[in-house]
Design goal:
Strand order of the largest sheet: 2-1-3-10-4
Strand content: 15-25%
Largest sheet: 5 strands, mixed
Shape: globular
Oligomer: single chain
Length: 329
């Protein structure tokens, strides 16, 4: 009895002093600070990583290429990056693996200033894309998913990219809004809240709404994923399972209790008004799946538009099924 009392006293003392069992540290790299990373922010806000025994150390990097390299070199345990990077790297003999999908469609719409919007009003998707001829178009980084989307649409709809001036503004949404305001750019390929903020400021609007399915090539693909090096997956499978469990809970909150998701995002983006934050959240919600599972058809659709763009060259027998796994979920 005395021994049991002593154990209980020790446990209570550890909890009161914050010296309970140590959490497993997991290092995560994230591309900038953007709304599309909602599941990560919800997990942090509601301490879901801690709930599953994790101390999540999140580092922000500028651009998908840097995020991918952080996983490839194992400088982090996992990164948030598009499946496009995984496919392209595999075609060159580099290997990382997607183990959780938290984005099923690009969150990147094409936003344009009032002049372009006026010319393109009521036009077809093809004519709207061609309206970018001669435009200064802002994107986060060279070689990233935003640039690939723009190039693919240009290829499909006949926009000569030699007429387009690309400006690289990084991952801060405020940079894009400021650039529209000061007339430094004519258009941008970026996620919300940029489109809503530009429209609210009467500086332009959404030229092509990918989120709402105006371009079917991007619907239900493997887009945003959690990615790790195969060595990390083998060595830290238990830790990565805990990460998946935290994301599962975050996505459940976001879909089943959107008011809680909105509250978490309000904390993460305090400069947004309550009205704007709620509007952006509901606009983005269709891009976040209800779980992290992936399948081969989704992978093939992703491959299809990359191949059509000329961004992916694969040898006979290339198998995308080896580049993602659901075994950690």
């Amino acid at each position: 009895m005395k021994r049991l009392s002593a154990v209980l006293f020790l446990l209570s003392t550890m909890l009161l002093t914050g010296k309970a069992w140590a959490l497993d540290t997991v290092k995560i790299s994230n591309i900038g600070h953007a709304y599309w990373a909602g599941p990560l922010y919800v997990a942090q806000y509601y301490k879901l990583f801690e709930k599953h025994g994790l101390n999540a150390e999140v580092t922000e990097v500028k651009g998908g290429s840097l995020a991918f390299q952080s996983a490839l070199t194992k400088s982090v345990d996992l990164t948030q990056v598009t499946f496009e990077h995984v496919l392209k790297a595999a075609s060159k003999g580099q290997r990382v693996e997607s183990f959780y999908r938290f984005g099923k469609a690009p969150a990147n719409n094409i936003i344009a200033n009032n002049e372009i919007m006026a010319r393109a009003k009521g036009k077809s998707v093809e004519e709207r894309i061609r309206a970018l001829k001669g435009a200064r178009v802002a994107i986060p980084s060279a070689g990233g998913s935003n640039e690939k989307m723009l190039e693919m649409l240009a290829s499909v709809y006949g926009l000569d990219m030699n007429t387009v001036k690309r400006l690289y503004l990084g991952g801060d949404p405020g940079s894009y809004v400021a650039a529209f305001k000061t007339n430094q750019i004519d258009a941008a390929v970026y996620a919300e809240p940029v489109g809503l903020m530009v429209e609210k400021g009467n500086m332009g609007g959404t030229l092509l709404n990918v989120i709402k399915g105006e371009e079917p090539r991007f619907n239900d693909i493997i887009f945003l994923t959690l990615v790790a090096h195969p060595d990390i997956i083998a060595e830290k499978a238990d830790i990565l399972r805990k990460v998946c469990a935290a994301y599962d809970e975050a996505l459940k909150i976001m879909h089943d209790e959107p008011e809680k998701g909105i509250a978490a995002m309000a904390k993460e983006f305090p400069r947004l008004s309550a009205e704007d934050n709620a509007a952006i959240y509901m606009a983005m919600l269709p891009t976040w799946p209800k779980d992290g599972k992936m399948n081969l058809e989704q992978a093939k659709r992703t491959m299809a538009y990359m191949t059509a763009l000329g961004e992916l060259e694969t040898k006979s027998g290339f198998d995308p099924a080896t580049l993602f796994t659901n075994k950690l979920q």
